[in-house]
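[audit] Reproducing an earlier prediction to check determinism. Same input, same settings, fresh worker. If the tokens differ from the archived copy the diff job will pick it up downstream; this log only records the rerun itself.
[audit] input (227 residues):
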Amino acid sequence: MKSVPRRESLAAKKERAARVAERLQETYPDADCELDYESPWQLLIATILSAQCTDKMVNQVTPALFERFPDPASLARAPQRTVESMIRKTGFFSQKAKSIRACAALVVERFAGQVPQTMEELTLLQGVGRKTASVVLGTAFHQPAVFVDTHVKRLTSRLGLTRSEEPVEIEQDLKKLLPPEQWTAFCHRLIHHGRRICFARKPLCETCALLDRCPRIGVDRPSVTPR
């Protein structure tokens, strides 16, 4: 694919984004969050724990955690040392234990034990930034949401869908390019693609379903023939 013009119009970029979204949908029709959860509360805690940790590792830890502390009230009362020992494998376990216990306490005290459903309220919770809040809103509550993790950041840059390195700006760029009903699924599909094909150091461009639609910005690889 030819490089993206520096002065590409918004209409042209929207058209490219639509083609990328279409191909990702064809490639990953059932892509969804890879964290295991049964409720918005469980997804919230799992997403906090996933910081600088793989979803696979979080999924190994959360079943026992949720069995012992099944709701915000019980987690808020949980001893710090106990929670630390249960989530140790996720890394940064001391800070994460403090965060999820404080998060649970505020959910109980301010939101009557229910996970709030707005960005403003979610980001009041300990350990919850804009990305985590967007994951919960889009995935658990099915609200239009764009979440920018390391994969979304890397792929949107390589695809020429943003020139920014800032997650909030990337989020706004994507919201301009795609209709709201596509935001959440598009992000999940980008994450799937980033974990399977479009790696940070050695992307598998030769086998990539987006090869003919990707300018490969910042990828230093020999030219390849589209499939």
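[audit] rerun output stored. Observation attached for the diff report: The CA atoms of residues 193 and 226 lie 17 Å apart.
[audit] end
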